[in-house]
Design goal:
Keywords: Membrane, Transmembrane, Transmembrane helix. The protein has about 45 residues and is an all-alpha fold. It contains one helix and no strands. The chain is rod-shaped and about 65 Å long.
């Protein structure tokens, strides 16, 4: 019984953690793309 609850919590935690990592990675990529665009604009000017 206790082990079952532990594994359910562990699975949910891993799923939540990976989801948060994906969100952080997407935000980081978007920011990276924005900085690249800004740098390109400065170079073109």
């Amino acid at each position: 019984m206790c082990y079952g609850i532990f594994f359910i919590i562990k699975g949910a935690f891993i799923r939540c953690f990976s989801y948060i990592l994906v969100i952080i990675w997407r935000i980081y990529k978007v920011n990276d793309n924005l900085t690249n665009k800004i740098n390109n604009k400065h170079l073109s000017l």
